[in-house]
Specification:
Number of helices: 22
Helix content: 40-55%
Structural class: alpha+beta
Largest sheet: 8 strands, antiparallel
Strand content: 5-15%
Oligomer: single chain
Number of domains: 3
Distance between the termini: 47 Å
Strand order of the largest sheet: 9-10-12-14-11-4-20-19
Number of strands: 24
C-alpha cells in the first residue's frame, strides 16, 4: 500500500462515505456488530491505496463480486415475490450475502487504482445496500440519503476533474447540469414510488395470491375442517411437496379429525401439552449409530413428545427421518405415528391427545428431523380419554338407515373388534372401486351415496365410509389426512412426495392394542396415480439435481451461525468434506463444474490495455515534446501487441527490464531502451531534446519494427533476419 495523492483523496472521500453508508446500513438492518468494523475501515481508504495485485486476484475478485450480486438480486426477488424461506434461513442468507459484498466493498475501496470504481466499489456498495433493505423494518432512511448524496458528489467530482478546474467552458459545464437534472429526477421518482408502491404492492399481492399462491401455500385437507371431495384437485398434480430421507416409507399424518356431520370432518384439539425441550441427547444413547452427528445435520431444537422417554431413540427399531418441505403448509408438521423425538426450528412445540403437533403458525418448519417407532400398524398404544372415545363413536343423527343396516350386518357374528375391522375393510375392497371420476354428489349423505349408488370414489370416501361403519359397529375411529409415502416414491437416497400422494385414511382403537393405522383405499390407487410420471432422462437428472440442492439446504440450515463466525475454518472444512469427500459422484460433479468454469475464464480473460505513460506522475510532464510522448505511446502499444502490456503501476524502464528476452528482438529492445532513457532525461533531469535526436529515435524504432520477421517454435517466439 502507499499514500494517495491529494487528487486521489478528493475523489476517494465521496466513495468512502458512500461505502460507509452502505455497510452501516447492513449493520443496522441485521443488528450485526462486525459490520461496524468494516464501516470504520472505510475512513482510511482515501489516504491509503493498494498499488498492485496479481492479475488472477484482480480477475477472480470481479467474478466473485458479480456472483454475489446475482445471488443478492435473486434472493431479493424471491423474498419479494414468494417468501419460500423461514425468517431464520432468510437472516442467514442475508448475512452471508451482506458480509460478502461488504468485504468486497472495502477491498475495492482500497484498490481503486486496480479496480475501476464504477464497476467495483460502487457495484459492491449498492449490493450491500440492497441486502440491508431486505429488512423492511430497519431505519435506513439516513443511510440512503447520505449514500445517495455521496454518490452524486463523486460523480460531480469525477466530472469536474475530467473537465479541468479553472478552464471549464459553457459547453464543458453541460455534463454537470445533466447530472444535476438526473439527480433531481431521481429524487422525484423515488418520492413518487414511496407513495405509490405501498398501495400497488397490496393490489399485486392480492391478485398473485388469488391466482397462484392460494393453490400452493394452503391445503384444505390440513385445515381444521375438511370437506369430502377437496382432495381431488391434488390427486392430479405431480408437484413435489416434500423430500423425505428415511430407512422405510411411512404415512405422514397431518391432521386428525374426530367430529363428522355427514359432509365435513372437524378437528378438535384436546389435552394439549407442551413438548419437552431437550438441550442435548443423554450420553450413551444410539452408541455406534452416529445419532449425535445425525441430529447435528438438522437445524432447530430437540423436543421429546408426550408419552415417550429419551431412551427410546436408541432402540434398534427406531426409524430416523429427515423431511424438507417445498412450502410451509401453513406451519403444519407432517410426521408418522408414534413419533418419539423431533428436531425442528421452532421456539416451542405443543401436542394434543391425538398426537397432532401444534407449532406456531409459519414457524419455519420447512426442514426438520424425527425419530419414531412402529410395532406393526400400532401408532399409539395408550387408551383415549373418555371424551375422545365418545367423539370417535358418534355419527350424525340423520345418518342414512341403509348405512346403519349395513353396519349391523357387518358386525353380526363377529366376536372381537379385529374381526369387525377386517370384515368392514374387505367389504369396501370388494364392493367399491377406486376412481377420481365420481361425478357430482346429489345428496347430503355422500357416504351413503358412495356405498349404495356410485360405488366408486377415492380415498376420502373410502376412509369416511370405513370410519362411519366402524363407529356404528362400536369401534372408535377417527379420520386422518396427510401424505402416503410408498416404496415407489423412492428416487436415489430419498422419497419424493408429491401432491398426488395426498391421502386420507383412518385410525381405529382396539382395546388391549391401541390405535391402529388402517387404510381402506385399494392398494392400486398409488400405482394408478404414478403410472404417468415417467419423464425420461431429463426428468431424472432434474430430480437428482433438485435433491442435491435440498441436501445442501439441510447443511446450510444446520450450521450454527453464531459460533461459525469464530470457527469459520471448521465450517469451511465441513462444507468441503460434504462436497469433496463424503460422496465420490458429488466430488466429480463439482470438479467438472470447476474445470468448465476455469476453462471459460481462461478463454475469455481480459488482457488490460496498456495505460498511457501520462498515468505515471512524472515531475516535468509539460517539458515533454509531443513527438517524444507519441513515441512512448507507440512503445507501449508494441509491448501490448506482444502480450506484455504494462500495468499503470509499472514505470517504463522497470517494465522493459522484466520483459523476457525472447519476446522482443535485440533491435526492438535497444530502440525501446533509448526512447525510454530519452523520456526519463526529459522528465526527471529537465534536458531539452533536440528535433534531430527525436528524428533518429523514430527512425531507429521504425527500422527495428520492420526489419525482423517472427518465427514460432512451440510456445516460444524466435526472430530471424529477413
Amino acid at each position: 500500500m502507499a499514500a494517495s495523492s491529494p487528487s486521489s483523496v478528493d475523489e476517494g472521500a465521496p466513495l468512502s462515505i458512500f461505502a460507509a453508508a452502505s455497510i452501516g446500513a447492513l449493520a443496522r438492518s441485521q443488528s450485526t456488530w462486525p459490520a461496524w468494523i468494516l464501516t470504520a475501515a472505510c475512513v482510511a481508504a482515501p489516504f491509503v491505496q493498494i498499488q498492485n495485485a496479481h492479475r488472477l486476484v484482480v480477475a477472480w475478485a470481479r467474478y466473485l463480486l458479480w456472483t454475489l450480486l446475482s445471488g443478492a438480486v435473486l434472493l431479493g426477488m424471491i423474498l419479494m415475490a414468494y417468501p419460500l424461506f423461514s425468517s431464520q434461513t432468510t437472516t442467514r442468507l442475508s448475512l452471508l450475502e451482506g458480509y460478502g459484498l461488504a468485504i468486497f466493498t472495502v477491498l475495492f475501496l482500497f484498490g481503486r487504482r486496480i479496480w475501476p470504481a464504477p464497476s467495483a466499489v460502487i457495484s459492491a456498495a449498492l449490493g450491500t445496500m440492497l441486502v440491508a433493505c431486505f429488512n423492511p423494518a430497519a431505519p435506513l432512511r439516513a443511510n440512503l440519503m447520505i449514500g445517495g448524496a455521496a454518490l452524486f458528489a463523486w460523480l460531480a467530482t469525477a466530472q469536474g476533474k475530467r473537465s479541468g478546474a479553472g478552464r471549464r467552458s459553457a459547453g464543458e459545464a453541460r455534463p454537470l447540469a445533466l447530472l444535476a437534472a438526473i439527480g433531481l429526477a431521481t429524487l422525484l421518482i423515488a418520492a413518487g414510488m414511496i407513495r405509490l408502491l405501498p398501495w400497488a404492492q397490496v393490489q399485486i399481492e392480492q391478485v398473485t395470491f388469488r391466482r397462484y399462491m392460494a393453490a400452493t401455500t394452503h391445503y384444505s385437507i390440513f385445515s381444521t375442517e375438511s370437506t369430502l371431495g377437496d382432495i381431488a384437485r391434488l390427486k392430479r398434480s405431480p408437484k413435489v411437496v416434500m423430500r423425505v430421507w428415511s430407512a422405510r416409507p411411512q404415512k405422514l399424518r397431518g391432521r386428525v379429525f374426530t367430529v363428522f356431520n355427514g359432509t365435513d370432518w372437524r378437528s378438535e384439539s384436546a389435552g394439549i401439552v407442551k413438548a419437552r425441550d431437550l438441550p442435548t441427547i443423554p450420553d450413551g444413547l444410539g452408541a455406534g449409530s452416529n445419532l449425535e452427528a445425525w441430529l447435528d445435520s438438522i437445524p432447530g431444537r430437540i423436543y421429546l413428545l408426550r408419552g415417550h422417554d429419551a431412551v427410546e431413540v436408541g432402540a434398534p427399531d427406531a426409524v430416523r427421518s429427515k423431511v424438507l418441505q417445498a412450502g410451509f403448509n401453513e406451519g403444519m408438521v407432517l410426521m408418522p405415528g408414534q413419533t418419539i423425538l423431533l428436531r425442528i426450528p421452532a421456539a416451542s412445540l405443543e401436542t394434543d391427545e391425538a398426537g397432532e403437533l401444534l407449532p406456531p403458525l409459519f414457524s419455519g418448519s420447512e426442514a426438520y428431523g424425527l425419530i419414531n417407532r412402529r410395532t406393526g400398524n400400532i401408532i399409539d398404544p395408550s387408551p383415549p380419554a373418555p371424551q375422545l372415545m365418545q367423539d370417535c363413536l358418534t355419527v350424525p343423527l340423520d345418518t342414512d338407515d341403509r348405512v346403519r343396516n349395513l353396519a349391523a350386518q357387518l358386525a353380526r357374528g363377529t366376536g372381537t373388534p379385529d374381526e369387525r375391522v377386517q370384515r368392514t375393510l374387505d367389504y369396501l375392497a370388494q364392493e367399491c372401486r377406486y376412481s377420481l371420476e365420481t361425478g357430482a354428489f346429489h345428496s347430503r349423505q355422500p357416504v351413503a351415496e358412495f356405498l349404495f349408488e356410485k360405488k366408486r370414489g377415492y380415498c376420502q370416501y373410502f376412509a369416511s365410509a370405513a370410519a362411519v361403519l366402524l363407529r356404528l359397529e362400536g369401534v372408535p375411529s377417527r379420520y386422518v389426512t396427510g401424505f402416503d409415502v410408498q416404496e415407489d416414491d423412492r428416487q436415489g437416497d430419498h422419497y419424493v412426495v408429491r401432491e398426488m400422494d395426498a391421502h386420507a385414511w383412518i385410525e381405529a382403537y382396539v382395546r388391549g392394542r391401541g390405535w391402529l393405522e388402517l387404510d381402506p383405499t385399494p392398494e392400486a390407487e398409488h400405482d394408478a396415480l404414478h403410472a404417468t410420471l415417467g419423464g425420461g432422462w431429463w426428468a431424472d437428472a432434474s430430480e437428482w439435481f433438485e435433491a442435491l440442492m435440498a441436501q445442501l439446504s439441510f447443511r446450510i440450515g444446520a450450521i450454527s451461525w453464531g459460533p461459525a463466525w469464530h470457527s469459520l475454518g471448521g465450517v469451511i472444512y465441513e462444507m468441503f468434506r460434504w462436497i469433496c469427500v463424503d460422496s465420490p459422484p458429488r466430488t466429480l460433479l463439482f470438479l467438472s463444474i470447476l474445470l468448465i468454469f476455469a476453462g471459460f475464464v481462461r478463454r475469455h480473460r481480459h488482457v488490460p490495455a496498456a495505460r498511457p505513460a501520462a498515468a505515471i506522475p512524472f515531475l516535468k510532464m509539460d517539458a515533454v515534446p509531443a513527438e517524444l510522448s507519441e513515441l512512448i505511446h507507440q512503445v507501449d502499444r508494441l509491448w501490448n501487441q506482444k502480450g506484455q502490456a504494462r500495468p499503470a503501476s509499472h514505470a517504463p524502464l522497470e517494465h522493459l527490464k522484466n520483459i523476457p528476452a525472447h519476446k522482443l528482438t535485440p533491435q526492438l529492445h535497444a530502440a525501446s531502451r533509448r526512447i525510454v532513457d530519452c523520456f526519463y532525461r526529459c522528465c526527471f533531469a529537465g534536458d531539452s531534446i533536440s528535433p534531430d535526436e527525436l528524428r533518429k529515435l523514430r527512425q531507429e524504432f521504425e527500422l527495428a519494427r520492420t526489419s525482423q520477421s517472427w518465427k514460432r517454435d512451440g510456445d516460444r517466439l524466435d526472430f530471424m533476419p529477413r
